[in-house]
Amino acid sequence: MGENVPVRCPACRRQHSFTPPVFPCACGEPLAPPLLRGAAPERITHRTWTDAWVTVRCGSCGRQDQWPQPELGCACGAVLRIPVRPVPRSAPPAPTAGAPGSATATGRTPAPGRPAHIPLPPTAAPPRPKFRPMTIRTARDAVTAAALYLKWLGFRDIMQSPERPASGIDLRAPGLVAQVDPTTRPGSLRDVECLWLHGLSASAVSVFFSLAGYADDARARADSLGVPLFVMDLTGTPQPVNRPADELISTGA
Predict the structure, then answer these.
(1) Considering its fold, how many domains does the chain have in total?
(2) Where does this protein have compositionally biased stretches of type Pro residues (predicted)?
(3) What's the rounded Cα separation, in Å, for the pair 183 and 137?
(4) Same-domain check for residues 217 and 153
(5) Angle at the Cα of 237 (from 80 to 219), degrees rounded to 5?
(6) What are the backbone angles phi and psi of residue 200, rounded to the nearest 5°?
(7) Residue 56 resides in a domain
């Protein structure tokens, strides 16, 4: 499991305890980006795909790959980029069988990693299986990741629009309309109000997913209208940023 570090939001000064998501290396070893302890997080106001990946080296096999940059969605609506320790130019060789600290020498095997998932609130019932996110590499991936999350919440027969629709509604299901904004700009007040109107006309729940967070007035309006807001990082793991989103996680579809 990745190391837990304190993170203070530069926008609202709220303190968080952040643990990066863990993914399996190609060799099977659980691996998480090593966080740069003590470094200030950066608020994401402009997102590019190249800036959203970091190089991580597996300490077991030495393999070096690109992994999603760790991000944290604050309750104030800000999306924070968590600094990662750069890969050193030279890394020590992987432990070999019989070497001190290896599984053969100690008789112990490393503790298994845990896949990243959204913890359910204590009041949620019945328990759901762990959510399995999908890595986001394209705008279309973001829509698919949101669909998987909504299915995990209990919505059925979810339909994806074949391309970016003029209405802004990317996902539909019985009792549901959802918008997924994969752009680098925060969700706006107009976006939230238009989504809410679509839900009102369809007698459906309106849910918003954004990669870049939300403007302050959009967040306030969503709270007053009861529109659940989620932010997604490139691991495809949505995080709730307002009370309606927390309630949706608790109750499900």
Answers:
(1) 2
(2) 118-128
(3) 12
(4) yes
(5) 55
(6) -65, -45
(7) yes
Rounded to the nearest 10 degrees, what angle do helices 216-225 and 243-251 cross at?
50
Residue ranges making up the domain that contains 154: 139-251
> What is the sign, positive or negative, of the torsion defined by CA atoms of 109, 110, 115, 121?
positive
> Which two tokens mark 28?
């099977």
- Cα(40)–Cα(224) distance, integer angstroms: 32
Phi-psi region of 212 (alpha: psi -120 to 50; beta: other; left: phi over 0): alpha
CATH code for the domain of 151: 3.40.1350.10
| CB-count exposure of residue 69 (10 Å: 0-12, 13-18, 19+) | buried
Flag whether 30 is in a domain: yes
CA distances from 22 to 26, 139, 163, 166, 206 (A): 13, 23, 32, 37, 31
Residue 108 pLDDT grade (very low, low, confident, very high; cuts 50, 70, 90): very low
8 Å CB contact between 246 and 207: no
Rounded to the nearest 5 degrees, what angle is found at the Cα of 192, between the Cα atoms of 252 and 123?
20
Confidence label for 100 from pLDDT (cuts 50, 70 and 90): very low
Please, what's the b/e burial string for 26-52 (b: 16 or more CB within 10 A of its CB; e: otherwise)? Answer: eeebbbbbbbeeeeebeebeebeeeeb
pLDDT, tens digit, for every residue of 10-40?
889 888 888 877 777 777 788 888 888 778 8
- Within 92-153, residue ranges assigned H as helices are 103-106, 139-153
| Model confidence at 49: pLDDT above 70 | no
Rounded to whole angstroms, what are the CA distances from 212 to 87, 200, 228?
27, 25, 15
Model-level pTM?
0.54
Cα separations in angstroms, 218 against 181, 186, 189, 192, 221: 14, 9, 4, 6, 5
